[in-house]
Design goal:
Elements: H1 15-21, H2 43-46, H3 51-58, H4 68-90
The structure holds iron/sulfur cluster.
Residues 31, 36-37, 40, 42-43, 46, 48-49, 64-65, 68, 71-72 line the site of iron/sulfur cluster (SF4).
Length: 96
């Protein structure tokens, strides 16, 4: 998310462990812990948005994204369009 400030490198023995242990750079707080997200129906698709963007806008990692309104507006249409795409791919609903 913030490639200008790397936490570790692929050469490290446990790069994923280093990312998990880091408390100085971008923090990836669980969506269930983000203020404003706990009861959102889209939380397990959205995850509260990009933590870097949220931190840049609010100074916090544990709050909902400043783009929340965009996500809530787009998710229903994206899911409907994906459903239509899958139905078309499978030939469901075709009239021949
Ligand atoms: S849509 Fe908004 S409230 Fe819902 S998980 Fe995303 S940021 Fe949080």
């Amino acid at each position: 998310m913030d490639i200008a400030h790397p936490v570790t490198s692929i050469a490290a023995a446990d790069p994923l462990g280093a990312v998990r242990a880091d408390q100085q750079r971008v923090q990836n707080v669980s969506v269930d812990q983000k203020e404003g997200c706990q009861s959102c129906e889209w939380r397990y698709w959205c995850a509260g948005g990009c933590p870097l963007v949220t931190h840049q806008a609010t100074g916090r990692y544990d709050v909902q994204s400043p783009l929340c309104g965009v996500y809530r507006a787009l998710f229903p249409d994206i899911i409907r369009l994906e459903g239509l795409r899958l139905a078309q791919q499978e030939g469901i609903g075709n009239r021949e």
